[in-house]
Amino acid sequence: MADALFVVLKKVALSLGEGALTKIASEVVEAAPILTDFEHSVKQIEGELSVMQAFIGQVRAQKATDRAFDAWLDQVRDVAHELEDIIDEYAYLTVQAANTGSFFKRKFHQVRNFAAWQKLPTRISQVEARIRRLAEMRNQYGISVGEIDRSDKLQIPNQLSVSDSAYLTDNSEIVGHADEIGILTQWLLEEKQDRTLIAIIGMGGLGKTTVVSSVYKNQKIRRTFDCHAWVTVSQTYQVEELLREIISQLIEQRASMASGLMTMSRMRLVEKIQSYLRDNKYLIVLDDIWDKDAWLYLNHAFVGNNCGSKVLITTRRKDVCYLAAHNRIIELKTLNYAESWELFCKKAFCASKDNICPMNLRSLAEKIVYKCQGLPLAIVIIGSILSYRELDAQEWSFFYNQLSWQLANNPELSWISSVLNLSLDDLPCHLRSCFLYCSLFPEDHKIKRKLIAKLWIAEGLVEERGDAATMEEVAEHYLVELTHRSLLQVIERNASGRARTFLMHDLVREVTSVTAQKEKFAVIHGTAGVAHVSQKARRLCVQKVVDSQNYLASSHLRSFILFDTVVPSSWIYDVSSHFRLLRVLCLRFTNIEQVPDVVTELYNLRYLDISYTKVKWISPSFSKLVNLQVLDLRFSYVKELPLEITMLTNLRHLHVCVVHDIQERSLNCFSDTKFRGNICGLKNLQALHTVSTNKDLVLQLGNLTMMRSLSVMKVRQSYIAELWNSLTKMPNLSRLLLFASDMDEILNLKMLRPLPDLKLLWLAGKLDGGTVPSLFSKFEKLTLLKMDWTGLKKDPIRSFSHMSTLVNLGLRGAYGGEHLSFCAGWFPKLKYLQLADMEHLSCILMEDGTMIGLHHLELIGLRNIRAVPKGIKYIRTLHQMFLTDMPMEFVESLRGSASHIVQHVTNVHIFDSSDSEAVNYFIFWPHLSKKYGSGAAKYDPTAE
Prior knowledge:
The protein is α/β, with parallel strands linked by helices. It is built from 29 helices and 31 strands. The model is unreliable at 18-30, 102-108, 147-160 and 940-944 (pLDDT under 50). 40% of the residues are buried. Residues 440-510 form the Disease resistance protein winged helix domain. Keywords: Coiled coil, Leucine-rich repeat, Nucleotide-binding, Plant defense, Repeat. Residues 556-866 form the Disease resistance R13L4/SHOC-2-like LRR domain. This is NB-ARC domain-containing protein.
């Protein structure tokens, strides 16, 4: 595919642009002629592949079901992968040669690797020959760009059947979407003179066509309009064909005959439609629009005649639906479980009275319905197929266990994969590769924005756009585009409103993973749909380990992600020995105590995640990992980093943190990781968490101008000015965690310059004078503020009240007074409030009109508060309260005389922090899920 070429062409450009030949010429004299020829050949291949990529992008939509084209593409993919192997092998050998230490060691490596150097010319010649052969095959089998056959309006036969089926669905068969149908009906009947454009958006298979057809065929609505037409646009539309179809339907309704339509120009067709519609109230439906360009000519054709005309469009893409007025957009959601069950029973048990599910099939039917996750298309098709089968539990069980295989191979289910694959095939090369990567995650896994962005970048799937944007920002733009195309769903946003967590519909994931396996892009091992792992698989996600590891003995792997957290550490060490050209290694939550020895030989490694493991030590030989971009050691036992870490100049994210107190109720809840050596060379570093400061380090931090997120511990007043001066040299710094060295250290921030672009500030330690520093008045962009053990003497809430953007506010042991007041109008965007461990606090005043959007309130260890704050009754948005270590009088009041104050709060949780089970359930597990997604659920913090 063109996306495979996209990846390899990026690598070719990098390999030729880094001056690697010059760097190692003096080190590998024997290989110099080989390298010169290599560079020349690769440049020639680069040109050929660039043309091939452009050709595939141009012709792919026309050849969607052409088996010869598919076979040819598979050959192209193999050639691209072979070239990628050569490029990565080349990088591996050059780094080995250039970074070997002593003279004797250098000579040893030259001898050991010279055979590999000698193979490069032969391998590159073979690639050149295969590319020439591919060009010949393309001509031999007539694979070329040509006119679309107008007699075949849709390249995917089943798409028409699905569209027709949805259009012809009887209203009595529709389940769910009642509210959406009601709103749509209301909009169509409203007496509004201007032409109105209405959009219905949602992922493939949600029932957009069914919903629209139900109102389009409504006789009351049809009588409201003088004329109407329905056309399916699809991905392979031609403007002239759409215009002719619209004219045919309109003229047919006027009992008139069209004349000369087939020879009319595009402009003449537009004029003809204008003349028909100028004096009529019309209803036009444009079903399945894939891009805004389709609307350009149609917009001119559908005249704004002030007759109350309506145009309905259905689409999977946000940019298309935004053509409509913002208050005339309906976004369809999946069916809830009750609706899904009703629809399934209607289809699967249509032959029985009242569509009742037999008891012997109940549990299996429920599993199948859950698997469909509210997608009507899947429910209808699977239910219809099962309606023709015996009501036998064994047969149904076999069908369910083979559902992944069925989706890929059963022609009866091809509608599902065809409809869902339309969105995948519509993606450009760079987005397609990134979306295929998302299918590596397990079912129902919450995909974290920061994690997937790092993985994409490490794999080379994200394009660089110069200094205007970081690759992380580009990756985030990719995620936005995937959500706008209805391929990923945003399920959680951070305090700034940015998408934090995404979810892929399980059936979309199933279909996408089949495509990923077919194209040798990636394989998920340990699921029912995968019988074996191709030796040529580029990426491997192991969800369940099997006894044999032969499938891992492949030099082709670029990503290895392990989700099976109970696998023995010996298995991991054995498997790791097979890796050579790996770029991504994720061993998060595994039971290892040391980093596998082979890791330091993985010169192409970009991403290494050994967080939440028992690893205690990082070897100095990590200095060899010159390409490493991400090193994640969070929740490991690493307390000190070796000096050699400072040699990893490509590091972008360094996370090392030992957590002592998951409840964060002490100043030393995090460890102070020691960072030895001079860090000035880490100029690409964007995130550093957490590091113990000293006089030298705070001065060196000023050289890290790319820094965006920083956590510093053990801060002393003696160098706070130098530290702050370094922070002001970081123009992009948006997140800062600053912890004092101990409870006796007093930090004076009064004379320091503000950091006006901060969005997150966590300050722990006593402040001079017990007052909020004046620089806080300049923090106008903060969305999250936490202050711990700051020793404030006056009510600090007024000092924060100007922070209108604040979403999360936490005060822990921060204030020594008795009263806190939240006045009307303050904190309009606050959603999360935590007040903890303030021993003298006895009264919390909340006026009507304060914190009007608060969702979550935590009160922890406030031993002097006896009465429930009366103002809680005004905060109607509050739906969750966590009460930890609160006085017995408070709890009794909450359950008795003050219960009316919190009667609108859906969830009130009361527990004691000494209850380890409750702590894990309410604090530890939510923390893991928030940081890492649902895949962290198997981690056992109590395991020895």
